[in-house]
Design brief:
By secondary structure, this protein is an alpha/beta fold. Helices cover about 35% and strands about 25% of the residues. It has helices spanning about 5-15, 40-50, 60-65, 80-90, 125-130, 150-155, 165-175, 195-205, 220-230, and strands spanning about 30, 50-55, 70-75, 95-100, 115-120, 135-145, 180-195, 235-245. The termini are far apart.
Length: about 250
């Protein structure tokens, strides 16, 4: 039986959005994955590292899913609900989880890690990454690229400036911090939302797509979106992903 608009909204507005696990969307939304396979690449780097740091680890999902962690493995997170989830997942694997304020200063000594990683960081503090890397160490990150999910954001907000998150700017910032960029790739990937509940859940979880989103604030647009999906099929958007790998030159 087809679910009503009110049923979809009620469910999606009350389900927990803690952590960085999107399995609630299985069968209700889909997104193509980048061709490079970030988890595989990170697993290969972690398997040979001695000391690794994962910045903005979310609920620790990526690290917890890797086959092997190095002898010293540390993750940082600033949002308290995610911090608790990360600790529950990573401490049994021998990894230390450290709370930070999400700011520009990493709470570690210079030259501590031979690998630093981050999946979808809100912001990349290149100077701090360069500081905590050992000579010859590497930074590996999958990041949000330019105009990511703009079709959905602009449905709610109207036309937006899409100049942010240019991978060329990231390369320049990395090099200005003394790092050498050895890999830089950009891909745009198809997303489909099959019901309005999937959109609500996604916007509650990925809070930067529509800042200040709430069901009450955007009730009219949500109703319009529900009607559009019912009449035309899935709402299609495109995510943008960047892979960047940079190294601190060996001294």
């Amino acid at each position: 039986m087809r679910r009503t608009y009110d049923d979809l909204v009620q469910e999606a507005a009350t389900v927990s959005v803690d952590g960085w696990d999107f399995s609630w969307l299985d069968g209700r939304a889909s997104e193509e994955r980048p061709s490079w396979g970030y988890a595989r690449l990170l697993g290969e780097r972690m398997a040979t590292a001695e000391a690794a740091l994962d910045i903005q680890t979310g609920g620790g999902e990526v690290l917890a899913g890797l086959p092997k962690l190095p002898p010293v493995a540390v993750a940082t997170e600033s949002w308290p609900p995610n911090l608790a989830l990360a600790a529950s997942r990573l401490r049994p694997r021998g990894a230390r989880v450290v709370a930070d304020d999400g700011g520009s200063c990493l709470p570690f000594r210079s030259g501590t890690f031979d690998l630093v990683s981050s999946r979808h960081p809100v912001r990349t503090w290149w100077g701090e990454i360069a500081r905590v890397l050992r000579s010859g160490g590497a930074y590996l990150s999958q990041q949000i690229g330019p105009r990511s999910v703009f079709e959905l954001a602009e449905f709610f907000l109207g036309p937006l400036d899409g100049s942010a998150r240019d991978p060329r700017a990231a390369k320049e910032e990395a090099e200005a911090s003394g790092l050498e960029v050895v890999d830089l790739r950009l891909e745009r990937l198809r997303m489909e939302f099959h019901d309005v509940g999937a959109v609500i859940y996604f916007l509650r979880k990925v809070i930067w797509i529509v800042p200040g989103f709430s069901v009450e604030r955007y009730a009219d647009r949500l109703r319009d979106l529900h009607d559009r999906i019912e009449q035309e099929g899935p709402f299609v958007a495109h995510s943008s992903r960047v892979l960047i790998e940079a190294r601190r030159p060996a001294q």
